Amino acid sequence: MEALVFVLLVIARVSHALPQHGTVALELSALDLDLSKRSSSSSSSSSPSQPGAILANRMDDSQRNIVFWAATIIAVLVSLVQGAITTLTDICESEGMWTIRFSLGRREHFWWTGIAVALIASLGSMIVSFLAGNNNDSLGILLLATASSLAVFRYAWPAWRNRHYCSNRWAAWTGPSRTGIDPVLIPYLPNPDRKTGKSRAGSNAVPGSDTSSLWRDMDHRAPTMKLHPVDIRFPLLLRTTLIVRDPTDILKAFQQTSAVPSEQSLPSTPHLFSTPAAPAPPASSKSSGSGPSFEAVTSKEKPENESARSALPPGVYAPILPGHAASLRWGRDLGFSPRVSRGILSVPNRLLTSHPLTESGHNGRALCLAHGILGRNKGLEPQNFILKLNTKMLEEKSVQWPRPSKVLRSYFKREMEAAYGGLGPAYVDAATELALLLADSSHSLIEDWLEKGMEQQDYRLNREAYVLEASDEDLRLLYLLSYAAMIVSLSAHSKQRQVRPETSLFVALWKATKPTEPLPEWVSSQEMVTRMANERAGLDSRTDLDGLIAAVLGPSPRVPVSP
């Protein structure tokens, strides 16, 4: 359709310009008639006699030429701009530069509105030229009117209606990401708390400018590496101090220049498992490959290294176990520029257009948003997420009830099985339910939910539990419940809600799996009691939080054994 608009513009300009300049292509059939018209027009230029030229007596030749060239220049510029934008979007989609493509998508309604206004202005100038006596403009007027109508009703209007989706698509794909950090790279993670000697009590703070500056320093000092196409941004138009490269790329590149992290090479990043004040603690039995299950840990049993935990690097979820990968939550708060998740490489192109479709031909917007969220928040054990959905109960208890999109469950599940089947049926069910909930949610609710970071495991809660001496297994359990919390959060979301029901889910699971044992001490603390009260604050009157929790945990939840 963009090509049709371009062709119509070219034809309109050719039909408008050729008679004015005596091009022989239009004189072959009536050369003598054309000559007679030129002679008569030169003898009566002050008072043309063309029918319908109601403005002929009000405009002289110079004014008519100005109008003619104004219409021509506007149409040519529109053709060039639209051709350039169309070519750029095609290049981005074919070469995988999705950060640029989705950034452009947020502004589609602006550029199509500009093109439509310019075409209408060119059409108005052509009409004025026609009324001034340029009768050969009639075909150009017809073609330009067609192009203007297409631009307005086929592109500009739908683009305005689609602007909220394009904005949410950007947020779903470029929000904070969760990346696994190889154990050999963990010592290189920037940690300003180590440099300043802060105590463990301050380790739950949100990452700030100190951490951002450390990451930027590492980025500048690390060898230059070629960017992945997904990571590419506009190099000149978006000058920024934010980091463009992926954090794992920076750590790997920096590792090549520093074989062993030390105070000299990394003054703010000493080894995480040893401190100047205490020797490195021995690895607990839980960190071995055959560690005990969740049921083996009680509220009174704490690992031997619990009291000697180091201050964690900002952005890293607790715990960090020797010999195990760490989970880093990174984004703008750590100084990184927003970019589309590389998980987009596994998504079919039909779901990445401005008007996506499923393989069955249904609206695919919710699937695209779900893929963006799931590409950023998996963590280290996505195959072990605790989730056993009772879909009927979940539908009835959610604020989106009566959930009209539930009829698409089989179509959506087929898409999710193709993408995430290797992570197990529980993950596929969670992905399907997330897409269905997004399909039934308003644009404003999705925008608010993503803006508050409800799709990610609560970083503050993780750090607070760490400070309150939660065991490593309790911290792992909070992570394994993160997808259940995500589903409940979206099912019960309102603009007054600020936190996810992660603590409530933890308590419900504990009571279901260990009904005779007391809750861990950290759960009974004043901070967590206040937290659980906040999790129930701002709920919609239609929402049954306990019912939603029961719907995602099932009647007999099972806790996977620690790896």
TrEMBL record:
Signal peptide location: 1-17
Keywords in alphabetical order: Membrane, Signal, Transmembrane, Transmembrane helix
Positions of the UniProt region annotated as Disordered: 192-215, 260-314
Biased composition (Low complexity): 283-293
Protein name: Uncharacterized protein
UniProt feature coiled coil, ranges: none
Organism expressing this protein natively: Bondarzewia mesenterica
TM ranges: 66-89, 110-132, 138-157
Disulfide bond recorded as keyword: no
Regions of compositional bias (Basic and acidic residues) in chain numbering: 298-307
Compositional bias annotation for Polar residues: 260-272
